[in-house]
Amino acid sequence: MANNRWLRLLFVLVLGQALLLARALFWPDRITENLPWPASPLNARFVAALYCMGVVTSLLSIVAARYAALRISVITLCGLTGGLLVLTLPHLGEFHGADFPWRWLGFYSVDVVVTGWVLWKLRGRDPAPPGRSPAAPLLYGYAGLMAVAGAVMLVAPAFAVGHWPWHLTSILSQVYSVFFLVFAFGGILAASDPRTEAIWIYLAANLAMVVIVLAVSVLYPEPFKSGTPTVAWYVLWIACGLTLVASLLVAVGSDRRRAAVAVVTP
Description:
Elements: H1 5-22, H2 41-63, H3 67-88, H4 102-121, H5 136-155, H6 157-163, H7 170-191, H8 196-219, H9 228-264
């Protein structure tokens, strides 16, 4: 199934939403216009780095030729916006008057409904063929790391706060957990699809996010704690980046080998 104008319009709208938070990469004080909870400048930039994944995903999904290339993007978008919405609802009593997060709730309520409708409408289209991605072992490793981090930050935010390399609040720990868990789910979906076409957007967007996280960490080192948490931070994010690069190379290399075999086979 070809990518159509309605799917492209969906990702144009998602791009606009993601840019509203991604701009905190350069103007961290603007994060409070969209994020319901206060965030230090470094936390604001980290949130922006996570949303840069959405920016890259949207841009690549707009230009993708087929629905197969952006199916994982739609699924993870639905999961991310739904997860953030569910996380927010129990905290609504903390907001009053002008602080009430109408924009946050409005955006994510609409996103969940629209992406859920799209997934229902297009169910069964361009399904993944039998088999796994040639990069499946690497993708499972990346997904496993993200799943463990996300689960700990969701169910034990106090533990996460104590081991985070800079000052973190419990609610931001849980906000980050939603992203990590969705990244993990996307990795499992990517590992389960043998088509490079179906996983390249996921891989490219996550790699861009990892690079931006590392860049922010290098450019703004002052709030980092000394010792093990900071060392572990760099080791884990560099490992994630290398895993994603290797996954891209393995997937693309497999495609080229299949193409070469098809050329020489009579």
